[in-house]
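Aim 2 progress update. The chain analyzed this quarter is reproduced below.
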Amino acid sequence: MTFNPNDSRYSSAIGAWLSENFEPQFTTQNAVLARLKIGDAIKYGPAYLVQPVTKGANPSVQGVSNFNTAMSIPADQGLSAVYTWSWYQGLTTVNKQEEVAIGTEYEMVDLLEQRVKDTIASFAEVINTDMFSATAPSQSKIAGLPFAINTTGTYGTIDRTTETWWRAQVENNVGTLTLQKINRMYNTLQGGSGTPPNVLVMPTDIFGAYEALIQASQRFTVDQRMAELGFTAYLHKGATVLFDSLCPAGTVFYINDRYLFLAAMTKEPNAEPVEFPDRLVKGYKHWYACALVAKRCNALGRQNGVTA
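Predicted structure tokens:
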């Protein structure tokens, strides 16, 4: 049979499949993305690229001692952290050998859907890898947790070198992991921001040390929401403790998903029909735009130099 990617039988099927299946598959591919989804920390639309922020308490809020006294206008009124999209693209293709071997449109749709599943898995893998990048965001990659949860660099157009209120809480040379050290950072963040972290991300070896600590104390609770998605995670004071093999060695991230989330332009990539005159392949081109967005950096923390 002849495969035409512009044929509505195929383009409509691919579009409908992406609409129904991209988000569920994309958000359960990796533990961090799964936990962001559970916390409603994957948000859609360009409005999330602009986040109003404040340097401190609003000085205009005070008791009234004189009804004729002019109110002060906070210097940071109108201040916002502004982010830009990072762009990802990929192809779902069928080659000529496959095209001539398939006999019906239903078989072609089945092949395309399997290929799209592989494409989605690759989108999730690449974005999850970038989630642990220590370099600044760019057109081709999002900011990673090591860059977002830091004390230096310009993030959201705000320079943390000079704007100290936009820095995360960072503790260096932590040493051997203990529950007391975890609680210390947890309490520091809760005391500073008013709300505690609700996600802790650590490397595989540190997670193993954490498991040994909680099992020795015989006081631990499995995060059932993550378990239902196939991930091993625990609850520590209500915060999900999980691991990722890509997490930088010796680093534990403390995230509050009220203040750090993944923003995406759309819920699923597009599916643009493509043919290549010089190659015997046809299919669909996909693009997806997203950004790791923070709205309050001092509610985020990390510990460096942690050992098992």
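The mean pLDDT is 93. The CA atoms of residues 137 and 143 lie 4 Å apart. These observations will guide the mutagenesis experiments scheduled for the next reporting period.
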